[in-house]
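Hey, I'm writing a tutorial for new members on how sequence and structure tokens pair up, and I'd like a real worked example in the thread rather than a made-up one. If someone can provide the structure for the chain below, I'll link this post from the tutorial.
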Amino acid sequence: MVKIVALFCVLSTNFLTNAQVDTIKCEESFTYFDTLLGKNLIVIWETPPSLKECSQKYVDKLEKFARKQINYEYILIDMIIDSEGVPICFRFKQEIEQVIRVKLTDKLKLLRFKPALIHDKRVESIYTIKI
């Protein structure tokens, strides 16, 4: 029994540590792009990230879900897109209930992008989606 409790404590600690590291990495990534881009609409990639056609069906579902759940006309969400085209971090521009935020985030994780390119190399990027 003691071994099970000890194992649970170790796993819980690892989970919390990883969650904190991920949160810190997301904050650092958003701070980096905020500093780099500022308030300007500039492109820093030779090829900016773009939504893959196969993800359009998820965007349509997101829009329908958002319209039912929130009072805003639309929601702006910043996403950090990794070098494989997978969204890894999310920042909502409007205040949204935590339950709705979690559901939207789960749906946003299904999106896939053509990653941004610099000198033909895939790089991490930021993408703002309006739903």
